[in-house]
Write a structure and sequence with these properties.
The chain is of the alpha+beta class. 50% of the residues lie in helices and 14% in strands. The protein has helices at residues 9-25, 29-36, 40-48, 55-64, 69-79, 96-108, 127-133, 139-152, 171-174, 180-194, 245-261, 265-281, and strands spanning 2-3, 51-52, 87-89, 111-116, 163-169, 199-204, 219-223, 230-234, 239-242. It has a 7-stranded mixed sheet, sandwiched between helices. It has a two-stranded antiparallel ribbon with strand order 1-2. The termini are far apart. One of its GO terms (molecular function) is DNA binding.
């Protein structure tokens, strides 16, 4: 077996998919461990990404669960380099595989900082807004993906929930994705979520006279109690997850810089409320 360096992004994603495959069959971890003649603690470490199983073990694991050959081959290939610090995925943004990975990051994080320059962060999205963003995906997949995305925000209400900071570029408030009514509901939901003690929403105004990190695009930083931070960036046909400690610290510094130039929490919520009023008046 190969140990990861504190839960690399691809190792966490692989573990999440192994757990999802097991849970889909209704099998407990202990029952599967008995079938594989191994210890359930070892399986738990595979499913959390703490340890990367050998490709051969992944094949055995999935065969015992009755997973299709195509899915088995995909995850076996995924295991070959899952202990690498950084991971570039060519899965389309918003896909089921990407959402499964993000749920795993969110489930184990202690702090999440989401810098959103174009759209509202996933953890704050309403169903209709998420559905509008997924325009272009196969219709038979959209509703499942919307449920997954909306379900992600429950992580903010659990016991020992992570601290979530959303820093929104003003431009994200002006894009009427889904139409005026959808955007009004979406912004009202952002204000509602900001009332949670572990959620902080800030707005960076447009018209800056000096460069700042948000000019380079959106990114999310996940911090963990016992692992290096993970920086995640999404693009149209790819995403990147980075866990190199030096790079992660630079992004944490960028979050602090943006926090310093953003409006205060109170000013930001008032600004969003004014945006809602303007949208309602224009109906």
């Amino acid at each position: 077996m190969r140990r990861t360096t504190g839960g690399a992004p691809k190792a966490r994603a692989l573990g999440a998919e192994l757990r999802e495959a097991r849970e889909a069959t209704g099998r407990s971890m202990r029952a599967l461990a008995r079938d594989l003649e191994t210890n359930h603690v070892k399986l738990q470490r595979y499913e959390t990404g703490e340890i990367v199983p050998k490709p051969e073990l992944v094949a055995t694991y999935l065969t015992a669960l009755g997973v299709s050959a195509a899915e088995r081959d995909r995850l076996v290939e995924m295991a070959r380099d899952a202990d690498q610090e950084d991971w570039l995925s060519t899965t389309k943004s918003g896909s089921r595989k990407e959402l499964t990975m993000l749920v795993e990051f969110e489930r184990t994080a202690t702090n999440i900082s989401d810098i959103a320059t174009g759209v509202i962060p996933g953890l704050l999205q309403t169903a209709d807004y998420a559905r509008a963003i997924m325009h272009g995906l196969p219709l038979n997949e959209v509703e499942t993906l919307v449920l997954m995305r909306v379900g992600r925000r429950e992580i903010l209400a659990k016991k020992n929930a992570p601290r979530f900071t959303a820093i929104l570029a003003e431009s994200a408030l002006w894009e009427l994705i889904g139409g005026r009514e959808v955007m009004v509901e979406q912004l009202e939901h952002v204000i509602h979520m900001s009332e949670r003690p572990n959620v902080d929403v800030r707005v960076v105004r447009s018209g800056a006279t000096r460069w700042h990190p948000a000019h380079m695009g959106s990114f999310t930083v996940y911090e963990f109690a016992k692992a290096n931070p993970i920086v995640h960036m999404e693009h149209y046909r790819s995403s990147a997850s980075l866990t190199n400690s030096g790079i992660a610290n630079e992004y944490l510094n960028a979050v602090q810089d943006l926090t310093n130039i953003a409006m205060s929490t109170e000013q930001s919520i008032e600004f969003i409320a004014e945006r809602i009023d303007n949208l309602k008046e224009a109906r």
